[in-house]
Amino acid sequence: xxxxxxxxxxxxxxxxxxxxxxxxxxxxxxxxxxxxxxxxxxxxxxxxxxxxxxxxxxxxxxxxxxxxxxxxxxxxxxxxxxxxxxxxxxxxxxxxxxxxxxxxxxxxxxxxxxxxxxxxxxxxxxxxxxxxxxxxxxxxxxxxxxxxxxxxxxxxxxxxxxxxxxxxxxxxxxxxxxxxxxxxxxxxxxxxxxxxxxxxxxxxxxxxxxxxxxxxxxxxxxxxxxxxxxxxxxxxxxxxxxxxxxxxxxxxxxxxxxxxxxxxxxxxxxxxxxxxxxxxxxxxxxxxxxxxxxxxxxxxxxxxxxxxxxxxxxxxxxxxxxxxxxxxxxxxxxxxxxxxxxxxxxxxxxxxxxxxxxxxxxxxxxxxxxxxxxxxxxxxxxxxxxxxxxxxxxxxxxxxxxxxxxxxxxxxxxxxxxxxxxxxxxxxxxxxxxxxxxxxxxxxxxxxxxxxxxxxxxxxxxxxxxxxxxxxxxxxxxxxxxxxxxxxxxxxxxxxxxxxxxxxxxxxxxxxxxxxxxxxxxxxxxxxxxxxxxxxxxxxxxxxxxxxxxxxxxxxxxxxxxxxxxxxxxxxxxxxxxxxxxxxxxxxxxxxxxxxxxxxxxxxxxxxxxxxxxxxxxxxxxxxxxxxxxxxxxxxxxxxxxxxxxxxxxxxxxxxxxxxxxxxxxxxxxxxxxxxxxxxxxxxxxxxxxxxxxxxxxxxxx
Length: 702
Known about the structure:
4 domains; transmembrane helix; His_kinase_dom; transmembrane; alpha+beta; HATPase_dom; phosphoprotein
């Protein structure tokens, strides 16, 4: 290096040290200084100025200069700490203290290596090892300090960054320069002399940046990093620490001087890499880190902005590939608690709750009536979010047993039950599966789940209202079409009747007359029968009742299919009910036809009849493709939802309504791939008579 270079280096150190001293004095004495954490900034500049003058007087590698450089590290770290705690320090400093303490410890370890190095100057091998560790500690400090600087700026509010960018840029310039400096020193196994001579330039840049920032107006400084950013920064720090520790151990093994040192070093590196590849990508580890960061670094468990954005994205998802709304509702609640699966239970017409949707939870067995009327009433009145682990542990004693049926409590995956209440009316229950890192729900979980539940209840109620409106519109359209059809059929029936009467009077040829009369009368009978059925549509023929033998009806329906498909009907004694024979047979034929269409050609359909108490039960069973609980709940008994091309989709709906009009009930049990059972329940004649007498007595009293 020539004299020009040394003159340049000397000038840079003088300019940096002098300007740092002047700026430090101005920050302390002037009232116009607007720098945040002004005292800490002046202290850092003062110590850095002393280091610069020491480097000029004794040399940049002299022992006093080296120890003063460590002092500058502590001073700048103190400034960084004060910037985090500049405003609302009780809330801001808590998550920062452990990281700052760790960096201070790293610098103390570096100081210990400097002291050890001064005692082994003549011994080249230990001195080289100690110098190697000193470089590693500085690398670790620079990485951690830069992560903190990044958190300081990126985690602040937008308005605060105007004043915060200057000290952050100054510290970033110093530590970024040192990071490159010590990285090259680590790779070259020695300090790069040229970069060491130019370190005063990094201090000069930092002083200039701080001087510019000191004349800027100060705004409020609040450190509020997002959870995702905190998680990424902490993960980066963990990974960097892991890599540094791995390198340190590997280098320590290599310096041991053992003959097996290379093999041990290679084995350690391989084992450490295998552990990193196995552990670091683990979803369980990431969830644990998120929980620990949220628990210890933030005042609240949830980032409500992120939760709301995710919630609206899940519910607002549209398109042919998007899951139906009931599944999205379950997912939206499950995302709040990181639950992997869930169920949606919605009210039945008869009371109670039934399964309406599953989300990633196909294994759990849910009965037809999942929660009885009493349990649904409890959730509707109390709006209580039920933690099932509290019940299992005996911490909840005042919950009625109807609120947690056996199928729910016995499944260990079931974790929590969230009611969806809309205008004090229960529109659904969401059952959440246990998350990978289960915990006891607290007040913050309850508050957030209650708000989310109310919002989802409004979506569910709106969806039901839209379905009802669409159904009413389709019914109106259907009724208009039927009115036109009835009008046309009535005219045609009248014309054919007139033609038949004229043919009886005027046909001359006997053979022609006979054929014409037979054809016209058959057509007239068919059209008149169709007209009668269309005229009865909507009333369900529930008023005209007679004593009907169900055993004879079962045999008659089975005989109708004797040439088309095997329908097995067991022999039973006569069993009478009060019903409309034609309507009941029409409903039973529809159920048998559905069972045949769902079964293989060689698979028989079973018809059975039995008595349970005061109820007669007709059963139609098949072993066909079966139906899912979601299909039964949302489509089977909904008009105009047909799986057949060109079908109206009103057969099952009409069958259920006709049976209801007779005082009965139609139940269905089905499993996909295993078959379906339809159960027609009707009160037998004895119980029906008792009910009629009770109704008549009540009417007379009234």
